[in-house]
Amino acid sequence: MMKKFFRAHGFAAVFSVLLAAFTLYAFLDTFVISREFAKAKDNDDVLESYKKEDGEPERGYHPDPVIASVFDRGVPDEPERTDTSYYDGEIYVNIEEYEVNDTAVYAAEVALRDPAYFRAGLAEGTYGRNISEKTSMIAAPLRSIFAVNGDFYGARNSGYVLRNGTLYRNASSGTDDLVVWGDGSFEIVNERDASAKELAKRGAWQIFSFGPSLVENGEVVVSETEEVRSSLASNPRTAVGQLGYLHYLFVVSDGRTYRSPGLTLYELAGFMKEHGAVIAYNLDGGGSSTMVFGVRVINNPTDDGYDFEEREVSDIVYIGRPRTNDAR
Description:
With 328 residues, the chain is an alpha+beta fold. It has six helices and 23 strands. It has two domains: 1-33, no CATH class; 35-319, no CATH class. The chain has a nine-stranded antiparallel beta sheet. A hairpin with a 3-residue loop joins strand 3 and strand 4 (91-100).
């Protein structure tokens, strides 16, 4: 059959057919076909390497007075839960809703006793290509107390991927990354300055590659016109910031609707600074922006402003205990 086709149409036509077939396969392989590269694996040795004999972290230990006051009431017999708060003596979460430039913004203050509770999860528990689930679905089997979407590493072929102490991707995209060290402290590191392998050896617990950096040393570091690639000026947003030692702020805004048009990066950075972030980083936004508390979605995720549902993503950031530990 191929010979008849070749005689009738010539080499150019055959080449065009083969090229079209290869192009289609390449497209499907990149954006559709799921490929599993590795199962998610925690490396808690990273956390242990930061601890001294008395249990205090080795690197950058600066007690946060807020943490002390939060945990003063001790350990309750059962976790204390409301629709917007959680407390069990080791993990504290409190969610508040704000309005910023006519946009609904949800901010969660989180305080932890242990950096091991600052965790990341992968869709289907797997690192790979075109593997995605809704934020709430990734969070559920992990027994997450609180979660937001991550950096959607699966939408790109480069950018460091290090989760829970395990390195999955070392390919540099040249961006500013958020490094969460084994003691729970944040640092912004450009991928041109250090490889993911180097950062892993130095004790990185998480690396998120999206950006840009929003706040550093307590000051806004984005301009009023800065944007993420081709994003619209106002968008749903997801960001995470550090307020102090083991003290964090997670922020998700609505957007793309007439009731909540969204935030610019500059507005998001300003909100983080106003609420005490000394360092803050922008995660994947738009239709990906999702905040989940327990099993409930707090914000209103949307791609187009008409349909409201979670977008499937490749990864999340969550607060919870390691699965190897008994959950309370």
